[in-house]
Design brief:
It is a single chain. By secondary structure, the protein is an alpha+beta fold. The protein contains eight helices and eight strands. The strands form two sheets. A four-stranded mixed sheet has the order 1-4-5-8. A four-stranded antiparallel sheet has the order 2-3-7-6, with no helix packed on it. α1 packs parallel to α3, α3 packs antiparallel against α4 and α3 packs across α8. The radius of gyration is 18 Å and the shape is globular.
Amino acid sequence: MTQVSAAAIDTARQLADEILFPAAMDVEKSGQIPASHLDALASAGLYGIAGPASHGGMGADQGTFLAVAETLASGCLATAFVWLQHHSAVRAVAAAGQPLQRRWLRPLCDGRQRAGIALGGTRPGQPLLRAVPADGGFVLDGSSPWVTGWGMTDVIYTVARTGNDMLIGALVPVTQAAKQDGAISAEPLELVAVNASRTVHLRFTGCFVPADAVVMTMPYADWLVRDASGLRTNGSLALGLAARCCTLLAAGQPDTGQ
C-alpha cells in the first residue's frame, strides 16, 4: 500500500467514524445531508481522490478509490452515494483536452465545484436523452432518471446520444441551466432508503450546451463495454454498509446509525 493510499483510507475512516456515522440516523430521518458532511470530504481532499496530482488531486489507484468509497459508505450511505457521483466528471475532464482541464479540473478536485451525473443517453433501446447538433454546440431534449445530489451539486455531467449513436458527455452548470427558461426541470423521487441523497428525475427541454463544455464523445457500443466494469464501484456502497453491520455485531452493539 502506498503512502497516498494509506492516508486516504485513514482519512475516510476517521470521517466515517467521527462525523458521518454518528449523524447517519438523523440524516435518514430528516431526508437531508448536512452541507458540513460534504464540506468535510472536500476539506480532506476526497473530492479529488480520482484526479491527477498535477491539478490538486490525489492520483489514487482504483483499489484505493474503492476502499475509500466503502469506508465512507460505512459511515453514511446517503453521503457516500452523493459523493460517489462526482468522480465520473473528474475522470471525464482528466481525459479531455487541456482547455477543459484548466477550466474545470482543479475546482472539481478541491470540491469547489461538485458534480452529479445524468446518464439518460446511455439507457438501452431508444435514448431517453438526445443531443442534436446546433450552431456552436448541442441541444439536449429528453430525460434522465436517477440523478443524485440535486441541490447539492454545481454541475451535472450529462451524457446524451446523437442520431448516429454517438454519446456526448458535457458539463452542464446547474446555476446556468436553472436560468434557462424551462430548459431543465427536476421531479423528486421518493426512495425506500438514502432519501437524503435528493435523487430526482431530470427533464431537458431545448437545453443548449456549448461545444466547449463537451468533455467526452464515444460510440454507444464502446460505452456499453466500459460501463459494465463500473458495477464494482456501485458495489462499494453495499459492501461498506455490510462492513459497518459486521463491526456492530462483533461489538455486540445495536445498529443505531443506519
